[in-house]
TrEMBL record:
One of its GO terms (molecular function) is sialate O-acetylesterase activity. The keyword Hydrolase applies. InterPro entries: Galactose-bd-like_sf (IPR008979), Ig-like_fold (IPR013783), SASA (IPR005181), SGNH_hydro_sf (IPR036514), SIAE (IPR039329). The lineage of its organism: Bacteria, Pseudomonadati, Bacteroidota, Cytophagia, Cytophagales. SUPFAM superfamilies: Galactose-binding domain-like, SGNH hydrolase. This is GH2. GO terms for biological process: carbohydrate metabolic process. Keywords: Hydrolase. Residues 426-531 form the Sialate O-acetylesterase domain.
Length: 665
């Protein structure tokens, strides 16, 4: 077909016009600036987004207009002047297009971050409605940042939306953060917004900015070249794949359960005559294998009825710390390398049989707790549709040690996939930087378990992260509240060195950073679970700190804090801050959790008694004492020194002798 010249130009004009929306950027907002959001009251509120460079952008809020022009990078920002609590309001942004946001409140905004204990939802904890309590609060808003990682700084998060607090939204939100928000809302009578940005099992280094990382040479080398390499993650995967293959070969060579590169202890016919009993589920540190890291084979026999008809089935084992390979009747049915994931392995028709069946699990634990640590309801065999349980697998198992990593010196294994801990800054880039400069009242932080093996370095990393985040937000020293590690693992019968105690000490030292506070929870942890189910008291103690630091209310917010010591013959007298009304032994009886040592550095359990506002510590075994420690253990669950506000004393030591993690970076 032929066109005349004028018609040709007309068609060309139409085509060009249709391309305009693609060639020019419409005004857009970050996902955090959206319907149902809470804006921080009584302070300047930044509102930002993107458009064409030089385009006129107008933001209308509460009867006033604010104008901006995007810079060369397309980003624009306006600052709404301080306003009191209130709402709901609409907010309109106009450029080439118009965006109207609804149901906006002015109140207090808190950011919650950390690893799994911050992330843990009430739904995961299986709280009943009675345990969860009241949940319908239209003036509490909840925002969850979708997990994401990036080698470069991102402008926006992957996914997220503000949700009005109701039963379902509260149930599927961080239990700690929800309880904290509810506590503050009920006390302050203002809208509360919580932005949750967390990821289970993460180390602090991944939450730190590139600028912070440059201050630590051993970390700077790990991120060299990240910003300049678009295929950086692919390179890491290739490198890790080779490392994993080599590590697995090494683990087979040192594992007595392997012979000639093949599993030898997985046979359903092999009789475990020299295997020992162990109760499952439980972390083995709390039962048969205290302070053990390595490879352990676990074995359990179960019986199916004689009239059992072959069918597809599912084997449920709950979470396994850290990694597992699992066989059923000698056939490998699955394996997982993430300690927080419940195991769920399909069993094909024909693998099960009437009569005796055997499940064997090879567990590799590289540090911290180890074993099959879920609940009794997590371990069972069921039909594929889970309509019928075929066998209960909790109770008595048998175990045998394949290898002890402390003896074989096998290092922790790498992972093939790129995860949040693969390199520093990955979560800062994707889950923190895009939130700046959203105005905040303060932050709550629950993390540290994954850094316990390098506790001394945490003394430097944690304060640096807090200082850097505050600088990035540009709001001064807003309150930063954090949770100290809970009591966890088996209780020690004698005083010992402890990585977890050293991490708690690093957290306590961070209180030297201005406007910080710490919730001590060594009395509400669980020996068998790194995720204590009592999140309500955690949030209450955070809220006490918020009342003091953020809302300037009177009242005690901290347990007793060690202040000084004085040697008095064969005794040591201790004084404390944060005990204005005196000290108490929780639940009466003698004080527990104190240890004392002489110049030989050998600690023994001590007698301790309260005298006025001091504690006097001694032992008949130490005639010339020089140091005292309190609650210095993985699980100091016997420690019972409190103040009159019913808050537990911070774990402490009076010495500065080198610890387990002194040289670890």
């Amino acid at each position: 077909m032929k066109y005349t010249l004028p018609r040709f130009f007309l068609l060309l004009l139409v085509a060009f016009t249709n391309l305009l929306p693609e060639s020019r950027a419409t005004v857009r907002l970050p996902k955090l600036v959206s319907d149902n959001m809470v804006l921080q009251r009584n302070t300047k509120v930044p509102i930002w987004g993107w458009a064409d460079a030089g385009e006129n952008v107008t933001v209308q809020f509460n009867g006033k207009s604010y104008n901006a022009k995007p810079g060369p990078d397309g980003k624009w920002q306006v600052n709404i002047p301080p306003m009191p609590a209130g709402g709901p309001y609409d907010l309109t942004v106009k450029g080439q297009n118009t965006i109207t946001l609804k149901n906006i409140l002015l109140g207090d905004v808190w950011l919650g971050s950390g690893q799994s204990n911050m992330e843990f939802q009430s739904a995961w904890l299986k709280y009943t409605d009675a345990q969860l309590g009241e949940t319908n609060f239209p003036n509490i808003r909840l925002f969850t940042v979708a997990t994401d990682l990036s080698p470069v700084l991102l402008d926006d998060i992957k996914k997220g939306e503000w949700k009005v607090c109701n039963r379902d939204n509260a149930y599927n939100f961080s239990a700690v953060a929800f309880y904290f928000a509810r506590q503050l809302h009920q006390q302050e009578k203002v809208p509360i917004g919580v932005i949750l940005t967390s990821w289970g099992g993460t180390i602090i280094e991944t939450w730190m900015s590139p600028e912070s990382i440059r201050k630590f040479p051993e970390l700077q080398s790990q991120v060299a070249g990240m910003n300049a390499s678009p295929d950086y993650f692919d390179k890491i995967k290739q490198e890790n794949g080779l490392k994993v293959q080599e590590w697995e070969k090494q683990s087979y060579r040192v594992d007595a359960g392997y012979a000639n590169g093949a599993a030898a202890w997985n046979s359903s016919e092999w009789q475990p005559a020299d295997w020992k009993e162990i109760k499952v589920p439980a972390l083995w540190e709390t039962t048969a294998l205290p302070d053990f890291d390595g490879i352990v084979w676990l074995r359990r026999e179960f019986t199916l009825p004689a009239d059992y008809k072959p069918t597809d089935a599912i084997l449920y084992l709950g979470p396994v710390d850290d990694m597992d390979q699992t066989w059923l009747n000698g056939t490998l049915v699955g394996g997982t390398k993430q300690y927080t994931l419940p195991r769920k392995y399909p069993v094909k028709v024909g693998l099960l049989k009437p009569g005796k069946n055997t499940v064997v699990v090879r567990v590799t634990d590289t540090g911290g707790g180890g074993g099959m640590y879920g609940t009794t309801n997590d371990l069972y065999l069921a039909t594929k549709d889970n309509a019928a349980r075929l066998a209960d697998l909790s109770g008595t198992w048998y175990y045998r040690i394949g290898t002890d990593f402390k003896k074989t010196k096998l290092p922790a294994p790498p992972t093939v996939d790129v995860g949040p801990n693969s390199r520093p800054t990955l979560l800062y880039n994707a889950m923190i930087k895009p939130l700046v400069p959203y105005a905040l009242k303060g932050m709550i932080w629950y993390q540290g378990e994954s850094n316990a093996g390098r506790a001394y370095r945490y003394r430097d990393l944690f304060p640096e992260m807090i200082t850097d985040w505050r600088q990035k937000w540009g709001q001064g020293n807003f309150p930063f509240l954090f949770v100290q590690l809970a009591n966890f693992m088996k209780t020690d019968t004698e005083p010992v060195e402890s990585e977890w105690a050293e991490l708690r000490e690093a957290q306590a030292k961070t209180l030297a950073v201005p406007n910080t506070a710490m919730a001590v929870i060594i009395d509400i942890g669980e020996a068998n679970d790194i995720h204590p189910k009592n999140k309500l008291d955690v949030s209450k103690r955070l809220a006490l700190a918020a009342q003091k630091l953020a809302y300037k209310k009177s009242g005690e917010y901290s347990g007793p804090v060690y202040k000084s010591m004085k040697v008095e013959g064969n005794k040591i007298r201790l004084t404390f801050d944060h005990a204005p009304d005196g000290l108490v032994a929780k639940n009466g009886g003698p004080l527990k959790g104190f240890a004392i040592a002489g110049a030989d550095h050998k600690f023994v359990w001590a007698e301790a008694r309260i005298e006025g506002k001091t504690v006097v510590v001694s032992s008949s075994e130490v005639s010339n004492p020089v140091a005292v420690r309190y609650a210095w253990a993985n699980n100091p669950d016997q420690a019972n020194l409190y103040n009159q506000a019913n808050l537990p004393a911070l774990p402490f030591r009076t010495d500065d002798w080198p610890g387990l993690t002194t040289a670890k970076k």
